[in-house]
Structures are given as structure tokens and as C-alpha cells.
Amino acid sequence: MLVTCTLLKSIKFILEASRVHMENCKPAQHASSCRRQVIFKIEPNMNLTPTAIIAIVGISVFAAISCNNTNQNASQPTAQNSNVPADIFKTLIDSATKARNNAYAPYSKFLVGSAVLAGSGAIYTGCNVENASFGLTNCAERTAIFKAISAGEKRIKAVAVVTDVPELTAPCGACRQVIYEFGRDVDVIMANLKGKQKIEKISKLLPDAFGPGSF
Q: Burial letters for 160-181: b for 16+ Cβ neighbours within 10 Å, e otherwise?
């Protein structure tokens, strides 16, 4: 880190000597892009020295690589933000994605897949099942949870929800209540088919929840 900072200071000194002004850490205008960018201000009708040109190219490449790494890390929280092991984390998302293909959604056309990591370590999948009587529709999360409970599970550790929309889909209120029933520290993993991911604790998605301890 010290070497990098020293190098950047040296490059900045070279640029300033060549009348090229550099502004570091200017906020990006678009949230989807890198949050920091480097701006060069070059005075018109000036002759840049070869050293200055090389410095500009070098720092531009450095900034581009840094931005790319930042964006990748932001869109891929992985298991570092979760209590779920990295390999299981990926398996949950893959399982939910596969289960989504079985969704019965002739009315909304909104396909949802879910995968539940139970206390035993087993994974149970589910999809949304709609009904002509809309109130009887069952969400993917509850389908997966009910499958786990009917198989003898008593606790769940994580729930993955996968959809195909730009903004990640969080569980509905009813599903949040059901998730909380079987674990107050459950990791809720939200993902879409583009690879965007987010993790939240059920206790955050359902604050001041009514649960087994409320009686």
C-alpha cells in the first residue's frame, strides 16, 4: 500500500510539472459505475512530454482495474457476509435458480425459486405456485420451508430467493414471518439471474417480530 501511494504521488508530481492537473477521488455520477474516478485536466494547445503521456496512460489503467474490482466485489457479497460456508452459499443460489424453472405462474408470469438450508445441513427447494383464486397462491420460500418441515426439519439456517428482475426480490411479509418462526438468525440470500446478490438477516427484514418467544 505504501509503494502504491508513493507511486501515485510521483505520477501526480510529474503531471503537475507538465501542467496536467489530476483530481483524485471524485464521486462517480452513476451508482452502477465505480464510486471513484480520476479526472485529468489538460490545458488546451499544450505539448505533453513523453513521461507525462506514459503517466496518464499508466494511472488510467490503474484506475480502470481498481474500478472493475470494486464493482465485482460490490455485486458479489459471497459468503463473507453470511454464516453459510462459501460452497454451500453457491449451492443454495444454484438450487434456487434451478427450482425457479418449475414455478407455476400462469397469471403473473413472475417466476421465483427458493432453496432452504435446514439445521441438519440438507437443502430443500421450492417455487411459487399460483392459483386462479389468487389468495391461495404459495410463495417459493414457503414452499421450500414447508417441504423442509414436512421432512422432519425443525430449524433453518438460510433461505435463498432467485428471480429474473433487475432489482433483487425480498421475501414478502408472510414469508418473512414464516422464516422467522424457524430461526431468528436466518440468512436471507437474494439473487437474480444476472449475478446480483444481497444478504440480510431475517431479524433486519422483520424487526420487532412476533415469534415463538412472544407468548
A: bbbbeeeebbebeeebbbbbbb
CA–CA separation, 59 and 6 (whole Å): 13
Catalytic residue check, 167: no
Whose cell is 507525462? That residue is: 52
Count other C-beta atoms under 10 Å from residue 116's C-beta: 31
From the candidates 141, 153, 167, 181, which is the catalytic residue?
A: 141
Q: How far is Cα 69 from Cα 8, in angstroms, rounded to an integer?
A: 18
Rounded-to-integer distance, Cα 208 and Cα 206, Å: 7
In CATH, what is the architecture of 79-214?
A: 3-Layer(aba) Sandwich (3.40)
CA dist., res. 43 & res. 18, Å (int): 10
> pLDDT of 10-56, one tens digit each?
555 555 555 544 444 444 444 334 444 445 455 555 566 666 666 66
Alpha helices in 18-158 (DSSP H): 50-75, 86-100, 140-150
Q: Is 67 helix (H, G, I), strand (E, B) or coil?
A: helix
The secondary structure of 105-140 as a DSSP string is -TTT----EEEEEETTS-EEEEE-B--SSGGG-B-H
Q: Which residue has the cell 418473512?
A: 176
Q: Domain ranges for the chain, please list them.
A: 2-75, 79-214
Q: Taking the model in full, what pTM does it have?
A: 0.65
> Other CB atoms closer than 10 Å to residue 86's CB: what's the count?
11
The residue type at 92: L
